[in-house]
């Protein structure tokens, strides 16, 4: 295509679109001049880097000053950064933030899944785990708190805002009953406390049993001796007449105090210190009066009856009550079994009989195994070795014999069943200190300044029924009701315009770090 000449003073134009052509061709730079300029720029950059490293401590090459907690690491980038990946490495973080040799570090993602539940079934790593620096942003200055993580970081894996997208609490959405294992009514007990204490304020009667911890955030577990003893199991309470065990009756009777002393069995040291006047024989029957809370005679006979029904109960025989517990409470069961074994061993130390010494050796071996497992705070317990569940029912017993033993169990536990549930010849374990929101933080101290107890805890109609002539139906007041507010109650105050509704207001990523205060662990096992 030939250029077309025009009278505009230009050299010409190309094509039908008449693209203009410059009057002069551009001047080309010489190769030597380009090389000189390039070398000069590189030298200047290297000089600036050298001056920054030796005199400015990397201030120019760094993204910015570190936070005050990490200021001592600023002189050497290798303290935090992996030279190959050129980013902060989790392995560098745990050098300082984890005790050396931890089997399960509290700062890793696995610990996040395990957080507050102590349920190792939750220990399943996710596919989208992110390194520490993703949430904890450094080089933002000395005054920046890198532990203050924005909601946007949390929402990458979780739901959005608290006001619109936070799911309902599980115990509300799924109507999960309270597993306190007690026959208890709040309205009746609140009314009785108000009468005894001469209270007019219902909230004051609540705090008679719900005693705040020293920090005011939560409450101490309910304790029978402190909260229930004044009304329950008084000196007038006794068992019904119970058939006494004889060589002919075998398991179909209870052992007297004399029989227990003669047996000299493990764990029966209590029998030497009990009052024999509490046991009264009426022909072939025995009456125990009074009955104490955790009465050792009653629990010993109950254990014997349970062994008749379930001879392969394993370590469940070492527990005073059932082994039913939440996953985060299982370790406490083994600690209880250890205490029972130690007490049994103590009662056998002075016995010279060879068979007793053989039994003592077996107990000592089992104690060693149990202590080895339960003393590791983050290690899962091998439940196959230390079975705590009841075994199969004794196949040698006829249905008539099973019925007779179960009837005796029912009679024996008559004083207990006023408050407790009894299943499989075992008192069901009571959860004295319950936490419905195990994976969240809640501060009662902060909330009581703004509202009252019964403004939030409305699931049981206490205010409307205290002092009424007739008690409400058990369906609205029983121990299985979770008297805890739904999320709508929280949203009345926790909004962007009122109280904080950030994720970290209620949730912490990392688990409880109370063991981090054991500084000697760091000194003794430093890397």
Describe the structure.
The protein is mostly helical and 527 residues long. Among the domains are: 1-60, no CATH class; 180-222 and 433-485, no CATH class; 237-323 and 391-431, no CATH class; 326-388. Helices cover 34% and strands 4% of the residues. Strand 8 and strand 9 (426-427) form a beta hairpin. The longest helix is centred in the first third of the chain and has 24 residues, at 31-54. The protein is elongated.
Question: What key phrases describe this protein's structure?
Answer:
527 residues, mainly alpha, three-stranded antiparallel beta sheet, two-stranded antiparallel sheet, disordered N terminus
Strand order in space, largest sheet: 5-7-6
Low-confidence stretches: 1-10
Largest sheet: 3 strands, antiparallel
Secondary structure tally, helices:
20
H/E element string? EEHEEHHHHHHHHEHEEHHHHEEHHHHHH
Helix content: 25-40%
For the secondary structure, the number of strands is 9
* Cα end-to-end separation: 79 Å
Determine the strand fraction and express it as a percent band: under 5%
Structural class: mainly alpha
User: Which word captures the global form?
Assistant: elongated
Q: Over the alpha carbons, how many angstroms does the gyration radius reach?
A: 36 Å
Average residue pLDDT:
82
């Amino acid at each position: 295509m030939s250029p077309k000449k025009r009278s505009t003073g230009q050299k010409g134009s190309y094509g039908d679109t008449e693209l203009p052509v410059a009057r002069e061709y551009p001047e080309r730079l010489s190769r030597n001049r380009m090389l000189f300029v390039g070398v000069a720029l590189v030298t200047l950059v290297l000089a600036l880097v050298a001056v920054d490293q030796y005199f400015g401590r990397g201030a120019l090459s760094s993204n910015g000053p570190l936070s005050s907690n990490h200021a001592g690491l600023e002189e050497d980038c290798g303290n935090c950064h992996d030279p190959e990946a050129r980013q902060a490495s989790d392995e560098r973080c745990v050098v300082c933030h984890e005790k050396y040799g931890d089997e399960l570090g509290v700062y890793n993602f696995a610990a996040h899944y395990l957080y507050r539940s102590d349920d190792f079934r939750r220990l399943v790593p996710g596919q989208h785990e992110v390194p520490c620096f993703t949430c904890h942003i450094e080089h933002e200055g000395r005054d920046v708190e890198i532990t203050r993580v924005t909601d946007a970081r949390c929402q990458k894996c979780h739901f959005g805002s608290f006001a619109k997208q936070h799911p309902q609490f599980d115990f509300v959405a799924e109507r999960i009953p309270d597993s306190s294992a007690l026959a208890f009514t709040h309205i009746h007990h609140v009314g009785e406390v108000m009468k005894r204490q001469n209270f007019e304020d219902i909230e004051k009667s609540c705090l008679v049993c719900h005693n705040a911890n020293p920090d005011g955030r939560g409450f101490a577990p309910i304790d029978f001796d402190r909260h229930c003893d004044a009304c329950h199991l008084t000196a007038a309470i006794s068992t019904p007449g119970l058939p006494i065990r004889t060589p002919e009756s075998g398991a179909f009777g209870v052992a007297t105090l004399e029989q227990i002393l003669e047996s000299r069995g493990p764990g029966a040291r209590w029998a030497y210190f009990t009052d024999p006047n509490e046991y009264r024989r009426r022909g072939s029957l025995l009456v125990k009066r009074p009955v104490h809370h955790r009465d050792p005679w009653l629990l010993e006979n109950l254990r014997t009856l349970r062994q008749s029904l379930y001879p392969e109960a394993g370590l469940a025989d070492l527990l005073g009550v059932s082994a039913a517990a939440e996953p985060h409470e299982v370790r406490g069961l083994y600690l209880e079994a250890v205490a029972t074994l130690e007490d049994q061993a103590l009662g056998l130390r002075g016995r010279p009989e060879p068979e007793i010494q053989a039994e003592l050796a077996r107990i000592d071996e089992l104690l060693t195994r149990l202590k080895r497992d339960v003393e590791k705070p983050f290690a899962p317990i091998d439940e196959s070795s230390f079975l705590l569940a009841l075994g199969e029912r004794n196949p040698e017993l006829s249905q008539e014999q099973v019925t007779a033993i179960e009837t005796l169990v029912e009679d024996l536990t008559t004083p207990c069943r006023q408050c407790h549930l009894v299943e499989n010849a075992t008192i069901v374990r009571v959860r004295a200190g319950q936490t419905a929101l195990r994976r969240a933080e809640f501060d009662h101290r902060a909330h009581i300044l703004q509202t009252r107890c019964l403004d939030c805890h409305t699931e049981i109609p206490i205010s409307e029924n205290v002092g009424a002539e007739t008690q409400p139906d058990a369906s609205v007041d029983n121990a299985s009701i979770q008297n805890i507010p739904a999320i709508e109650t929280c949203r009345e105050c926790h909004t962007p315009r009122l109280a904080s509704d950030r994720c970290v207001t209620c949730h912490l990523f990392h688990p409880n770090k109370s063991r981090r205060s054991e500084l000697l662990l760091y000194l003794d096992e430093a890397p």
